[in-house]
Specification:
alpha/beta; 5 helices; single chain; Spore Coat Polysaccharide Biosynthesis Protein SpsA, Chain A
Length: 171
Amino acid sequence: MPEKMHAPDRRAGLKEATALVLAGGRSSRMRRPKPLLPFDGQPLIAHVVSNLRALFADIVVVAAPAQELPPLPVTLVRDEVAFQGPIGGIAYGLPAAKYDVCFVTGCDAAFLSIPLISHLLARISHHDVVVPWWEARLQPLHAVYRRRVLPVLREQLAKGDLKAASLFDRV
């Protein structure tokens, strides 16, 4: 069940889309929680949320069950099952989104490009998912998803299939 941390700002001109920020990873290579890494004088996740505020009034952060985060002006959702990767994070975040269209990113995306995000959002009109291809790979954590992919995600989780490519092959 989502928990409200702070009411989001309501600014004119924002796209009717939600930003989902996935924060529940293990941070195994960093050996400390990525969302809390200092960046420009604040926790990295606070920096990411602040950047997303330029485009989104509705922001959902998906965190692990007992993960500690700083206070943020977002809707906070906890993974039902921890460490199911981006597929789990997206599946747990989509139901909390205010809008049908969701831009998904990780909590470590310090250098988000608002023009690129706007470009991706503009491409979703006749699609379930818009995923950029960069460095010979799909980039599922810098992509736009519709809520209607949720049944496919839930089916994947039930089968233990945590590969984003499996979703892309089906939508």
